[in-house]
Write the structure tokens for this entry.
Amino acid sequence: MKHYDYIFTGAGLSALMTVYEMVLSEQFKNKEILLLDSNPKKTNDRTWCFWEEGKGDWKKIIYHEWDSALFANEKFSRTFELNPYQYKMIKGLDFYNRIFKRLSAEKNITFLHQEVLGFSESAENVVVQTKEEAFSCHKLFNSIYNSELVEKQTKYPLLQQHFIGWFIKTDEPAFDSDVATFMDFSVEQRGNTRFMYVMPTSSTEALIEYTLFSKDLLPREEYETEIKNYIQKLGISNYDIIEKEKGNIPMTCFPFWKENKKNIIHIGSAGGWTKASTGYTFKNTTKKSKALVAFLNKENDFRKFHKTNKFWFYDMLLLDILHHKNHLGSKIFSSMFRKGNPAVIFRFLDEETTFGQDLQVIWKCPKMLFIVALWNRIFKKQLYNNNKTL
Ligand SMILES: Cc1cc2nc3c(=O)[nH]c(=O)nc-3n(C[C@H](O)[C@H](O)[C@H](O)COP(=O)(O)OP(=O)(O)OC[C@H]3O[C@@H](n4cnc5c(N)ncnc54)[C@H](O)[C@@H]3O)c2cc1C
């Protein structure tokens, strides 16, 4: 059985960013590293958007960036400057190509296109079983998401951020490529939290996504009918669909990190690196991958990596509310964005605000809902059924 120092089961966003950080740090040149993925990562399987100050680490592969954003519901629409942030888009394939190109220059890093069946820890090693063979390693970084873990427990609610997106090209100019539609709740809510997300990359091209934060997925036709209706509402009659994407991102405060072992760490969505209240993962992964590489230079026990913070608790209250009263998402996000300072809201979502700034954001939300959610969390034992249905 071939032995490695580090094995990464899954080689998507979190694994590739972590290995890339290892390469940049130059502290891991003597470590044999294996990346395993059942997907060769040669297609554009997703588009990442995130907000960031300054040029950032990924400037060479930014596909488009916006200085302004729009928030709307059926009663109001607000366009605001994102300053000091910019909202940025990266195509998944550009990211994979860039990282694999850089990793190909490193003799100590191997990528194998193999499906992982499981892994287990013994006193000294971790053994990884793929469909073809077995490998052992000293430390394992797992980003293969185990949905059962969350679905079988009842303490933390699980919502999904689920969506279908169309990249369209119109015959006539139809979009303002300087303004990203962050959330447009003017679509029918039908008892859920439903909104449109529009990322125009030129006056004739945009990614249009119909998105829900809810427990159950919809039949494919329902997302697509809503996209068609919305395009019509924008006054667009002639267009081509260039590409489609779909996603289903877990939104939960389930403490994934409690599954970490001395030599096994769960990373990415599988490790709780997805922001529970929004589904955003890219930005958090840039921070966590740097922190993990710095941690590895000092520590040996992965159980010490995670630190819980106040934002985990805030997210839990929001998810408790949306789980019980899914139709209130529009009201909550609208109250935050109608008059709130966007820079403070984005800093809050980045988990970088002081307690005073937290209150500035939270105070704008319907207070009673959060007080009741807090009361229930502290004094009532609530049980959540997290099984998805279609
Ligand atoms: C379409 C889409 C759009 C998104 N857009 C955004 C966005 O705009 N902003 C944002 O912040 N987040 C976004 N996300 C959420 C999040 O950023 C991504 O899901 C991100 O890729 C998560 O990183 P990860 O490392 O946890 O998982 P992944 O990147 O999915 O990596 C996991 C890897 O494990 C591999 N794998 C799974 N099972 C096995 C197996 N048995 N054996 C071997 N390999 C296996 C997969 O092929 C995959 O490559 C989006 C997600 C999707 C799906």
